[in-house]
Amino acid sequence: MKEDQEMGEELMQHLRSRATELLLREEWNESVQAYSHFISLCQHHISHTHQRPDLDHLLKLQKSLCLALSNRAEAWSRLRDLANALQDCDGALEIEGTHFKTLLCKGKILLSLNRYSLALDCFKAALLDPQAGLKCEALNEFLERCKQLEHQSRTGVFDLSDWVVNGFRGKFPELAEYIGPVEIRKSDIRGRGLFATKNVDAGTSILATKAIATERCILPDQNEELADNIQLAMWKNFIDKVVESVSKCKRLHHLLSVLSNGEDEDVLEVPDVNLFRAETEEESALSMGKLDMDKILSTLDVNSLVENAASAKVLGKNSDYYGVGLWILPAFINHSCSPNARRLHVGDHVIVHASRDIKAGEEITFAYFDVLSPWRKRMGMSKIWGFQCNCKRCKFEEQICSKMEMQEIQMGLERGLNMGDAVFRLEEGMRRWMVRGDENGYLRASFWVAYSEAYESDHKTVRRWGRRIPAAEAVVDSVSKAVGSDERVLKAFLAGLQRRCGGGSGLVEMEREMKLARGVYGKVMKKQVMKTLIELGNHE
Fold first, then answer.
1. Residue 189 Ramachandran class (φ > 0 left, ψ -120 to 50 alpha, else beta)
2. How far is CA 494 from each of CA 299, 377, 512, rounded to the nearest angstrom?
3. 242 in helix, strand or coil?
4. Cβ 93 vs Cβ 102: under 8 Å
5. First to last CA, the chain
6. Which long-range CB contacts under 8 A does 389-398 form with residues at least 24 apart?
7. Would you say the C-alpha torsion 28, 30, 34, 36 has a positive or negative sign?
8. CA 83, CA 250: separation in Å to the nearest integer?
9. Distances (CA, A) of 177 to 96, 210, 349
10. Would you say 281 and 251 are in contact if contact means Cβ atoms under 8 Å apart?
């Protein structure tokens, strides 16, 4: 009996040494296999030791099992199998609730899963262990990261100031997952949509999230055939990345299944927005069904976002690339020609913010294409996207564009009508037709090219019409209120200030400039840094 025990211990010692060696060599799969064999033997010996109690031997086996589970958790986490990694961490902590290495490992896994409060609890518990003194600096770094991310996830307050000031050099800023005052409801626009549950000021963050997967490339300007081939290869790589991600995580698999694949949208279930909060995750209750590639392809076709789109701004080195990605919750945001939200891309994260003031109950909407264009052109673009836009603006403009005078203005512009004359005729028409409020902004946005060129290059014509043509600042205000902030609208406002004040501005003008800028970039940096970014954008 004693010889059998010694032989068993010798085998276990050999397995443990081999598993540790593989772990140190970063051969993760082989390490998992070796530790699994060791853990099975260890559990077998523990069960037999319980039958013939030997307290010292039992404690030794439990200590070995705790360390083996912790090390296997580390290997699982390196393989991105985080469910098994957490299960091993919990198993180790059942044996020794204050095991330093396991608490550190579990904290890092929870941090990567965006479960900041739980990760913070692990790091705080690890800090109480005597071993913490040896790794105090690294542990404190994790604690500070966790505190910062937890604060971001709770408040939606992000500060990119240092990164912007440094010229976007170095690593992308670390951003938390954030879901603001929103809910998912049936949409009058199409299918399901995201709605504000409280009033939201322009620039305020609505949500922030990291992509399930992204793919980027540089497309050639001159060779269209080559660009098409590159995009096909890029799309294939993107699909492979999505499939790999969802096949390793029950939660991602479930969230992907919640998205529309373009069929029967009116009968789709409306999910609770809390489903998308990482802190409320209950992965063990989810099932991992077989991946349906046809459904995945159609889901990606409907929900993927191009980074450098009409309603987006890409900051940092990724602005040089053509990029596509899948961000789950933003995929619920529908199109409107009077959008109220924009998105800021920072690395693989996207921050969605209000591009104008949003009222409680209002649907959050993006511009899928350029909305500073006439109604007929927008209708053509919506058909390319596979839908017909029936937003409030489109319904109004469909009626107004049936007027002969509107058709004459449009035809005149196509034939080279002076931009100032076109603006004058449109403004006179709006007075006669009793167009008021947002409707003024809608039409000015539709003829934005005429307005911007008239104010920028045809000063004599503008002066000729005098007060019968509104000041550039009034046009900017009405357009931004109706269709949200846009970089071109911001540039027009700054150009107007330059002409009127020589670049100087009072407090009122500065506040208007900041509000427009926040609508474009969001409230993600200090005022002075925002001014620097505005100046950079104004010279592009």
1. alpha
2. 41, 27, 10
3. helix
4. yes
5. 82
6. 389/335, 389/336, 389/337, 390/189, 391/189, 391/336, 391/337, 391/338, 391/365, 392/338, 393/336, 393/337, 393/338, 393/438, 393/442, 393/482, 393/483, 394/337, 396/439, 396/442, 397/442, 397/443, 397/446
7. positive
8. 9
9. 31, 7, 9
10. yes
Span 103-132, pLDDT tens digits: 999 999 999 999 999 999 999 999 888 776
Distance CA 303, CA 242 (A): 12
Question: Which two tokens mark 451?
Answer: 């307005």
User: What is the pairing mode between strands 322-326 and 305-306?
Assistant: antiparallel
* 343 torsion bin: left (phi>0), alpha (psi -120 to 50), beta (else): beta
- The answer to whether 334 and 512 are in contact (CB under 8 A) is no
Structure tokens given for 470: 């509104």
DSSP secondary structure letters along 422-490: HHHHHHHHHHHTT--THHHHHHHHHTHHHHHHHHHH-HHHHHHHGGGS--HHHHHHHHHHHH---HHHH
> Hey, what are 245's tokens?
């991600």
- Bridge partners, residue 214, by sequence: 325
DSSP for 204-220, please give it.
Answer: -EEEEEE-SEEEEEPPP
Pairwise CA distance, residues 509 & 496, whole Å: 11
Identify the pLDDT of residue 52.
60
Percentage of residues of the chain with pLDDT beyond 90: 67
Residues forming a β-bridge with 193: 185
Number of alpha carbons in the 13 Å side-chain half-sphere of residue 247: 12
Type of residue found at 132? A
Alpha helices in 271-371 (DSSP H): 293-303
Report the b/e string of 346-376 with b at 16+ CB within 10 A.
Answer: bbbbbbbbbbbbbeeeebbbbbbbbbbbbbe
Q: How confident is the model over 267-309, as pLDDT tens digits?
A: 899 999 999 998 765 555 556 667 889 999 999 999 999 998 9
